[in-house]
Amino acid sequence: MSNNGPASSAADFAITADQLGNVVNFDERANTEQTKLLNAKYGGVDGLAYFLRTHLETGLEVTDPTTMDAVDAIPRQEAFGVNLVPPPPSQTILEMIIENIKEDPIIKILILGAIVTLIIGGIQGDGWVEGIAILSAVAIVLTVTAGNDYSKDKKFKRLLLLQSDKKTKVIRGGRKDQISSWDVMVGDLVELVIGDEIPADGVLVRGNRLVVDESPLTGESIPVKKSAKSPFLFSGCQASEGTGIMLVTAVGARSSGGKIQALLSEAQGQETVLQSKLRGMALSIGKMGFMAGITTFWFSQFASSSIPVAHYPQGGFPSSDLIRLLRFFNTSVTIVVVCVPEGLPLAVTISLAFSMFKMIKDRCFVRHLEASETMGEATAICTDKTGTLTENRMTVVKTLIARKLIHGEGSGEPDSIPLSASLFSDAIRDVLMEAVCINSTCFIKYKPNDPLPLFVGSATEGALLVMAQKLGYDYDKVRKQTRKVENGEYLFTSDRKRMATLCEPRAALIPGASPPLFRLYVKGASEIILGLCQQQVNSDGMVVPLGGEDREHLFGVIRNWAGDGLRTLALAYRDFDRPLTRAERDDPEHDLVFLGLVGIKDPAGIIVRMVTGDNLLTACKIARECSILNDYGIAMEGPVFRELSIPEKKAVIPKLQVLARSSPADKHTLVSLLKEMGEVVAVTGDGTNDAPALKEADVGFAMGISGTQISMNASDIILLDDNFVSIVQSIKWGRNVLNAVRKFLQFQLSVNVVAICTTIIGAIANDESPLTPVQLLWVNLIMDTFGALALASDVPDPKLLKQKPHRRHDPILTRPMTVYVFTCALYQVVILMTILFHAEQLLYPSFNAAARGISGRRWTMTILFTTFVLMQVVNKVLARQLNFELNFLRGTTKNPLFPLMIFCILFIQTLIVQFAGDFVRTVPLTGNEWGLCIAFALGMIPYQTVIRSCVYFYRLQKTTFSQQTGGKTAANGKSLPEQQPLKQSTILKSSSVARSPADLGE
User: Fold this and answer.
1) Does 361-388+606-730+988-992 match 94-151+277-311+323-348+736-796+814-945 at the fold level?
2) Is the separation of the CB atoms in 523 and 569 below 8 Å?
3) How do beta strands 175-180 and 201-213 pair?
4) What is the CATH number of domain 10-87+169-263?
5) What Å distances lie between residue 644 and 19, 514, 521, 647, CA to CA?
6) How far apart are CA 158 and CA 671, in angstroms?
7) What is the pLDDT of residues 860-898, one digit of tens each?
8) Which of 156, 497, 782, 912 gets the most CB atoms within 10 Å of its CB?
9) SS3 (DSSP) at 785
10) Sheet strands (E) in 470-517
11) d(CA 866, CA 926)
12) Closest CA to 837 of 773, 768, 765, 760
C-alpha cells in the first residue's frame, strides 16, 4: 500500500481511538443510550465523518484518482492502528526445548539412561564418557526437534495471516473498488452486501433493509436489523440481508472481532484424522516396544546370573553384577527409544504444511489444515459449476480388441500391465491404429515440465491417441500417410452419438494382402455401434459373424465397465472394394465389422454430480457437454428428489448425475446421504445459500472471486482464480500427503524392526546391546527428522491422478508396504547377525586387532553400526516407491531436500566413525572396511529388484492367463455374468414423480 497522500499527522484528527471505542462498543450494543451519545456528543454520523476527515458520499480523499492507495495512510494508522491482528507470539527455541523435556517421556527415559551410564562410569572409573555422550545426543535431538517446531510454527503463523486477508469493497475519492481487508482504515466507507463479512467496527451511513448476523460474536442466532436507531456494526459479523454503507471507526486489535481474536493463544488447527491415526499407531508400537524392553531386561538378567539374588551376601550385589544389571537396564531403555516412532505425526505435519504452501501457487488457498489431507480421499464431488476434473486428460485403462481382454495401467485390476505393441498381432494393431488416428480431430500438446499430455479437442479422442503412442505409433505420421476421402467425414452429434471417417486405408487384417479400396472407420457410444455391427474380428484377425451370444457378452462387458465408472467406446469399420454409391455415401454406417471396445477413465477417479438451480433441460445439456451425464446416469429435478424416502434416495444416488431445480436443502441432503454411504464428498459453491452444503461436506470449495464471504467462511479451500480445474491440483496434493506418509511409514517401520531384532538378539547373546544408546539416538534422528524431511516433502507424481482414491477406512499400512518392511528387514537382520557373530572369522580374516591397537569387539560393533546406518540410506531410496515399482530412482531429482538429507547422513556418519572414538564407542575404519560396509548396504538394491521383478512377472502371468481364455472371461478367469440390455439415461421431471427404485430404472 502506498503511503502517499494528503499531508497530515495523527494530531490532525479531532477524535481519538479510545473515544471512538466508547461510542461503537460491542459490550454496550443493547444500550439505547449509545445512539444518544453518538448524536449528542459527536453530532451523529456526520460529525464522526467530520472528525475523521472523510466524506460520507465520496469517502477518503485521494491525491491520485487512478489508484485507491493515494490516501493519508501513515497518520491514520498511527492514530487508529492497522486492520491486522497479529498472531500470538511464538515460543523461543529455548522454551520449546524445555517444553519437549516436560512432555516427551522418551527424553526423560534417555536422561535417566544417561544418569545410569554415569553411575556405571563412576563405579568403573572410565565409563563417564558414554553418559556425557548420551546427554550430548539428547541435547542435539532436542535442538533439532525444537528447530523443526519453530520453523513449523512460523509457517502456520504466516498461514494465519493469509487467512485473515479478505477482499473488501470501499469507496475512496468517489470511486468504488476492492482492496485487501488489511488496507481498510478508520474513516473508510465500506460497502456491504448479502454474504459479506464486516471487516472492522463502524456505524451505518445508509442502508437498504440491512440485517446482520452477529452470532460469530454473540452466539445468538437471531439476526439484528440495522438502521439509524441501531447503527453500530461490528467486525467478524456478516450481512445476511439487504445492503449498506458503513463508516469505519475501529480496526485490527481495537475492533470487536479483533479483541476476541487477540485472546486466542492457539495458532494451529486441530489434529487431523491422519495425524490421529498415526499417533495411535505410534502409541501401539511404543507399548510393544516397552514390553520388548522389559522382556529383554528380565530375560538377560536371569539368563546371565550365575548366583540367585537371594544367595547374595549381606554386603549386597557385587559391583560387577550391579554394572551388568544397569547395562541391561540401559539396553532396555534403548529398545524403548527405538521402538517409539514419534516421527510419524511429524511427517504428516511436514507434508501437510509443505503441500498447503505449494497449493497457494496452484491458486488453491487451504483454510483448514485437514482439508488438503481429506481431498486425497475424495470420491464424489457435487458442483454447480461447469467444467471437468480431468484437465481434458483421460486414459484408456481397459481394452477388448479382437476378443482379447487387456487390463492396462490404472484399471485397478490386480493383473494390470502397461499397454504395449506386443499385446496385439501386427495386422490387428495396424488396423486399430488407423481406426484411432484417422477417425479423430484431436491432437496432443505438452506443457513445459509437465509429462502429462494436454488434449486439444475431445478428451476421449486424446485418450485414444495416447494409447496409439503407447503402442509405438505416431498419430501425426499415420494421418499424413493415409488419405481421407473428400466429404467423407461424418461428425459426431448428440443425436448420432458416433463419428465416422472414410479413407483409403494402408492396413489390412490379413498379412500380405492388399487393403480394400476404401474403408469407413466408425467410433461412438458402445451400444449404438454394437447395434450397427453384423460381424466381428476374432483373435486370429479373421472376420466372423457377430452372433447373439457374442452380442450379449459384449453388452455385459459394457455394463460392467460402466459400473466401474469407465466411459466405454466402440470401434468398428466397413470395407468397400469399389467407389460408394450416392445412397451409400448418404448412409454408410451399417453392416459394420466390430473391432473392439476401450474403457476410458477420468484420471482423478472421482464421480462428479451437477447440483444446480437451472431447469432440467439446460442442466442436462451442460452436463452432457461437460461429460458429467452419461447414458447410464439419472437426471432428476429437486421436487422429485424431495418426494423420495431415505431408502429410495440411497437407491437412486449411485446413478444420480444431475439434480436440477434444486434447493440448498436438496444439496445439503445429497451431501449428507453420500457421506452416510461411505463417500468422501467435496462440494463447490459461490453463493451464500451454498454455505450449509459446504459446511456439511468433507471438503468445501468456495470461489475466491465470485464467491460471497459467507461461502468462503464455510469452505475449507478457496479457489483463488475461480478455476474449477484447480480442484485437480488439490486432489493431487491431497493424495500426495498420504503417499508421503506411507513412504515414511514403510521406511521407519523397516528401521524399527531391524533395530529391535539386532538389539534384542545381541543383548541376550552378548550381555549388551550391539548398538549403544548414543548410536541408537543417531539412528532415531535419521529415522525421524531426516526421514521426515526427505520423504514427506516430495512433490506429487503425475501418476497420482491415475490411482483410485484412498477410502476413508482403508488401512494406512497396505499389503505391499508390509511385504517391503519384512523383506527389507530380513536382509538387514541376516547381514547384521553375520557381522555380529562372524565378522573376524568369515568377513574380514585379515583383521588384526592387536596390530592396530584397538579392541576387536569394538571394531566389530563399528562395522555393524556403520553397515546398519548405510543400509538405512539405501532403504530411504528404495522406500520412495510404493507398490513394488521397479524404477526406485524415479523422482529423486525433483526433491532437492532428499539428496541433501542423504549427504548430511553420510557426512555425519563419517565424522562419527572416524573421529568420535570413545564418545560413540567406535574405532576408525580403513578404506577397505568402508568398502565392505558399502557393499553390504548396496546389496539391498539387487535383493529388492529380484523381489519386485518376481511380483511384476507374477502379475504378468495372471494377465497372460486371462488373455488365453479368448477374451470372454474376466481378469480373475471367471465367466462374466449375463447382463440386462442397456438403458439410456433416465430423466425424471416433477410432473412424473418416481415413487420406488423400480421407477428410477433399477
Assistant:
1) no
2) yes
3) unpaired
4) 2.70.150.10
5) 59, 61, 45, 8
6) 32
7) 889 999 999 999 999 998 988 887 777 777 767 777 888
8) 782
9) helix
10) 483-490, 498-504
11) 12
12) 765
- Beta strand 567-576 with 518-525 is antiparallel
Burial of 834 (0-12, 13-18, 19+ CB in 10 A): middle
Query: In whole angstroms, what is the distance from residue 474 CA to residue 797 CA?
Result: 26
- Residues 592, 529: contact at Cβ < 8 Å? yes
Report the alpha-carbon distance of residue 199 to residue 185 in Å, rounded.
10
CB 609 within 8 A of CB 656: yes
H or E element in which residue 246 lies: strand 238-250
CA dihedral 94, 95, 96, 102 (to 10 degrees): 110
- From 380-394, 896-910, 965-979, the region with the lowest mean pLDDT: 965-979
Residue 969 DSSP symbol: B
Backbone phi and psi for residue 304, each to the nearest 5 degrees, phi listed first:
-100, -10
Q: Which CATH architecture has domain 395-601?
A: 3-Layer(aba) Sandwich (3.40)
CA 166/CA 171 separation, integer angstroms:
16
d(CA 208, CA 214): 18
Pairing of strands 167-172, 175-180: antiparallel
Of the candidates 616, 618, 826, 604, the one whose C-alpha atom is nearest the C-alpha of residue 730 is 604
Strand, coil or helix: 386: coil
- Bridge partner list, 365: 718
Which cell numbers in the block locate residue 70?
493515494
Q: Please give the model's pTM, rounded to 2 decimal places.
A: 0.59
In Å, how far are 461, 501, 593 from 492, measured between CA atoms? 12, 11, 19
pLDDT at 778: 81
Domain 94-151+277-311+323-348+736-796+814-945 in CATH 1.10.150.320: no
**Confidence at residue 842, expressed as pLDDT on a 0 to 100 scale:** 67
Mean pLDDT value of segment 153-157: 70
Calculate the average pLDDT of the chain.
78
Q: Where in the chain are the domains?
A: 10-87+169-263, 94-151+277-311+323-348+736-796+814-945, 361-388+606-730+988-992, 395-601
Provide CB contacts within 8 A for 229, sequence distance 6+. Answer: 35
Are the beta carbons of 686 and 679 closer than 8 angstroms? no
**Contact in structure between 770 and 794 (CB atoms under 8 Å):** no
Which three cell numbers mark 88?
500470538
> Is 384 marked active-site?
yes
* pLDDT at residue 560 tops 60: yes
Other beta carbons within 10 angstroms of residue 850's beta carbon come to 7
Question: Which residue carries 525444537 as its cell?
Answer: 146
CATH of domain 361-388+606-730+988-992: 3.40.50.1000
Q: What is the spatial distance between Cα 445 and Cα 252, in angstroms, rounded to a whole number?
A: 49
| φ, ψ (nearest 5 deg) of residue 142 | -60, -40
Q: Which of 201, 384, 666, 686 is catalytic?
A: 384
Contact present, 607 and 380 (Cβ < 8 Å): yes
